[in-house]
Design brief:
By secondary structure, the chain is α/β, with parallel strands linked by helices. It contains 13 helices and 13 strands. The strands form three sheets. A six-stranded mixed beta sheet has the order 4-5-13-10-11-12, with helices on both faces. The structure holds ligand F0G.
Length: 404
């Protein structure tokens, strides 16, 4: 097919190509998830790198977004159609005090919690909502453990679109729920966990709701740019390891796609190893990885205090496997105690993050202690959400009463 942007089934055995304008949710031939295919730019990699950096000095809305300044690798839209809140352009901070900082040569936190709504979801939502508008959506919707709902609500409000969030009743942090309400989303509480909320959303397909969960491949296009920006911050010298929390597994899939495209277009030669981390009580993907089984076995009742990643049936597990295989990566899990300790340690760095994000440092501590990360390695922990996303967790473990 064509040089133009199109969709392709993510299952290589099918690889059906589809017209993006038909707004399919899944492959009509095999039911697989879709990928957006953007023809790779033919420009000299150094010219691209120079242009991307140059755009940081511009006040043009398209350039000022840390997502859209990498637009050569994104689907194209007319500038006035973009729905942006100047997402991206998040810092890479060096670790100083955590134990692992002395076990590896360089340890960084890439803090995606410093996005407009406080989580990495904004990097994808700017593309997802822009595409929803292009597709003529009357309403956008998602199932969420909280962050997707907050981000969708904000970007939908910018676009003037109504938004509906399906949330697991009683299992979403109050701060995230408050954000979604503040930005004007309609809230539907579903009895059951995130997986039940997602099933409820998908069951409504065809009722005119445009889905912006990470099943939506346009979201992942925006999330790809995190890797571009990270590499720019490291002067295009790829780190050895990038560690990312895994819930529904959209983010690691986006990172894998970014690395594939960066290698294919000559922007990098070395592939950083992707490590996905789950909580021990919500670990279907880590179990799949360890067992080498052919298919993911959903977990019926996932449990973790890191509620953002309390997911038992991750939709993007096949894409995630592909990302790990392409980068010689791995999947693992960490205990609730390790998450708690790592979260406190990131707080003591003066950086802070929400519990799900702290799984990354917990994993790095474990891998470094076991000698599974070289001492001369450069390692990046992706912090996906801001500390203020879950203040109750902090208060619960501080030994203080609320409000003191
Ligand atoms: N970290 C945070 C803070 C999250 O909110 C999520 C997912 C993840 C990590 C995992 O990312 O799903 O792409 O593997 N949150 C979704 C939500 C499920 O609804 O906000 P993933």
């Amino acid at each position: 097919m064509p040089d133009a942007v199109h969709l392709r089934c993510s299952d290589p055995a099918c690889a059906a190509t589809l017209d993006a304008r038909d707004n399919p949710l899944a492959c009509p031939r095999c039911g697989g998830l879709l990928d957006v295919v953007v023809p790779l730019p033919q420009a000299d990699p150094r010219d691209l790198q120079r242009a991307w950096l140059e755009r940081r000095r511009s006040n043009d809305a398209l350039d000022a977004s840390g997502v859209w300044r990498f637009r050569e690798f994104l689907p194209a839209y007319p500038a006035p159609a973009l729905v942006s809140l100047r997402e991206g352009n998040t810092p890479l901070l060096d670790a100083r005090h955590v134990p692992a900082a002395s076990r590896v040569a360089r340890l960084f936190f890439k803090h995606l919690g410093w996005n407009p709504t406080g989580s990495f979801k904004d990097t994808g939502m700017t593309v997802g909502i822009t595409e929803a508008k292009r597709a003529g959506a009357a309403r956008v919707a998602c199932a969420s453990t909280g962050n997707t709902a907050a981000s969708m609500a904000a970007y939908a409000a910018r676009a003037g679109l109504p938004a509906r969030a399906y949330l697991p009743r009683g299992a979403v942090s109050g701060a995230k729920l408050a954000q979604a309400i503040d930005y004007g989303a309609e809230i539907v509480e579903v009895d059951g966990n995130f997986d039940a909320a997602l099933a409820r959303l998908v069951a409504g397909a065809g009722t005119g709701e445009y889905f912006v969960n990470s099943l939506n491949p346009f979201r992942l296009e925006g999330q790809k740019t995190v890797i571009f920006e990270l590499l720019e911050q490291l002067q295009w010298s790829p780190p050895d390891v990038i560690v990312v929390p895994g819930g529904n597994l959209g983010n690691v899939s986006a990172f894998g796609k970014a690395i594939e495209e960066l290698v294919a277009s000559g922007l990098i030669a070395k592939r950083p190893r992707l490590v996905v981390v789950q909580a021990e009580g919500a670990n279907p993907f880590a179990r799949l990885w360890r067992s080498g089984a052919a298919a993911l076995e959903p977990q019926r009742d996932p449990q973790t205090e890191a509620t953002a990643i309390r997911i038992g049936a991750p939709a993007s597990w096949k894409k995630a496997l592909r990302a790990l295989r392409f980068t010689d990566g791995l999947a693992m899990d960490v205990s609730e105690n390790a998450i708690r300790d790592a979260k406190a340690a990131i707080g003591r760095e003066g950086i802070g993050c929400e519990p799900a994000s702290a799984t990354t440092l917990a994993a790095i501590e474990q891998l470094a202690a076991d000698g599974r990360i070289d001492r001369d390695a450069t390692v990046v922990a992706i912090l996906t959400g801001h500390a203020l996303k879950d203040p109750d967790f902090i208060m619960r473990h501080s030994g203080r009463e609320r409000g003191v």
